[in-house]
């Protein structure tokens, strides 16, 4: 279980809380915020079926979650079920690297780790009514979580609003889950460095529209998708508009723009004029922070057409194109040239498709190097060539090599 990735577990988040304290206010608001980002959250009222044994069901849910959020409120320690739940959570933290994030809700963290005030009275009652080893286990778990770093929501007129705290919690959880996730994909070979570059650009306030430029098949869309998947949950609205050039040819410019606006505004939106003339639509767009990917743009006017100038503060737009001039004319703030793969990454990607291994078979090394030369670092070419050679004999590889060499020579002569 310790090595499980976020994609293998049933829940991203397990919520532990004292219902009478926070169920109808902070916890319900946090639950909605987490769900709005697409997370699957275990929340006992929704997930527990009638007739299930409570302790067993909760323990299974904790084991099936990437991390636990424990909302420590004034009466949390008075609940035997909460303490049993906490004991299970902290046990998994220590043995299975389960992530635990405490929220000290209107309680002092020092009162938790030192068991002071109302917490002291609660544990004295448990120690007199429960088996001694069980009470000690609960007490140890309570002290331990009081030592963890979390959020201290004091309340009162000098504290931040709960909405701001919830925003911080959700963003932190997304980053935490992304860092734990070990997505292994044959298509992402050699993309990490470029992804870091784009993420750094996105963090800069003056980089609102970021262009990804490069020849067809170089990996622009894959790079944009990887970045989008990592950061999109932190935005209020999001949309990945793939194949802009092709879709405009098929369905028209206005229809495609209405598709985008409807997704961002979460309601059917129809603009049938060349520009977004509706003041209401402009204002609604201006009020939300969005991330949008416009993939395969071949005309600079397509960028402005989508209404990007009306998107709210902090919005980010990623545009991919084969034409650098299209990006420059379209008002892109920063242009990143998507690089071809180096020799090592090319060999790994090619081998992944041709052998389902990270390296080629020893007696195919020479032929593999020749195919790498034809592909010239293009991820698409490496995937296509590798897929066609999978399970083929060396003799068939040589036939394919001759065919690829002829195509390569013809292409060179044209240029």
Task: Provide the descriptors you would attach to this structure in a database record.
415 residues; alpha/beta; Rossmann fold; five-stranded parallel β-sheet; 20 helices; 52% helix; 13% strand; disordered N terminus
Number of domains: 3
Query: Order of strands across the widest beta sheet?
Result: 2-1-3-4-5
Distance between the termini: 55 Å
Task: Write down the overall geometry.
Answer: flat
Annotation field: number of helices: 20
Uncertain segments are 1-7, 47-52, 182-186
Topology (SSEs and partners):
Blueprint: E1 11-17, H1 19-22, H2 26-36, E2 41-42, H3 44-47, H4 54-63, E3 65-72, H5 80-96, E4 99-105, H6 109-113, H7 118-129, H8 132-146, E5 151-153, H9 162-180, H10 192-203, E6 209-213, H11 220-231, E7 237-241, H12 244-251, H13 253-265, H14 279-286, E8 290-294, H15 301-305, E9 316-321, H16 324-329, E10 334-337, H17 343-354, H18 365-375, H19 379-389, H20 394-414
Parallel strand pairs: 1-2, 1-3, 3-4, 4-5, 6-9, 6-10, 7-8, 8-9
Helix pairs in contact: 2-9, 4-5, 5-8, 7-8, 10-11, 12-13, 17-19, 18-19, 18-20
């Amino acid at each position: 279980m310790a090595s499980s990735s976020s994609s293998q577990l049933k829940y991203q988040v397990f919520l532990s809380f004292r219902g009478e304290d926070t169920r109808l206010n902070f916890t319900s608001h946090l639950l909605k915020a987490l769900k709005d980002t697409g997370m699957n959250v275990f929340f006992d009222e929704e997930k527990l079926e009638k007739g299930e044994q409570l302790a067993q069901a909760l323990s299974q849910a904790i084991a099936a979650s990437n991390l636990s959020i424990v909302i420590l409120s004034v009466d949390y320690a008075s609940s035997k079920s909460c303490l049993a739940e906490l004991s299970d959570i902290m046990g998994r933290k220590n043995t299975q690297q389960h992530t635990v994030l405490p929220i000290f809700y209107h309680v002092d963290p020092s009162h938790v780790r030192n068991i002071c005030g109302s917490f002291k009275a609660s544990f004295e009652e448990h120690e007199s009514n429960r088996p001694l080893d069980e009470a000690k286990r609960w007490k140890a778990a309570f002290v331990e979580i009081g030592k963890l770093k979390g959020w201290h929501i004091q309340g009162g007129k000098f504290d931040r609003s709960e909405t701001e705290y919830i925003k911080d919690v959700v963003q932190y959880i997304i980053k935490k889950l992304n860092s734990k996730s070990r997505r292994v994909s044959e298509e992402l070979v050699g993309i990490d460095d470029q992804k870091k570059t784009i993420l750094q650009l996105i963090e800069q306030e003056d980089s609102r529209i970021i262009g990804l430029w490069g020849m067809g098949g170089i990996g622009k869309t894959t790079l944009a998708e990887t970045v989008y998947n990592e950061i999109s949950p932190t935005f209020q609205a999001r949309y990945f508009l793939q194949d802009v050039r092709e879709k405009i040819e098929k369905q028209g410019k206005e229809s495609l723009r209405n598709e985008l606006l409807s997704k961002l505004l979460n309601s059917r939106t129809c603009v049938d004029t060349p520009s977004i003339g509706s003041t209401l639509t402009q204002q609604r767009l201006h009020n939300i922070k969005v991330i949008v990917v416009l993939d395969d743009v071949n005309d600079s006017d397509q960028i402005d057409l989508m209404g990007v100038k009306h998107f709210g503060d902090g919005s980010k737009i990623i545009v991919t194109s084969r034409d650098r001039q299209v990006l420059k004319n379209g008002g892109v703030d920063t242009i990143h040239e998507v690089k071809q793969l180096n020799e090592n990454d090319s060999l790994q990607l090619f081998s992944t498709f041709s052998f389902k291994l990270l390296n080629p078979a020893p007696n195919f090394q020479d032929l593999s190097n020749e195919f790498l030369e034809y592909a010239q670092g293009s991820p698409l070419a490496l995937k296509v060539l590798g897929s066609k050679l999978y399970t083929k004999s060396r003799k068939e590889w040589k036939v394919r090599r001759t065919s690829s060499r002829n195509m390569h020579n013809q292409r060179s002569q044209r240029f």
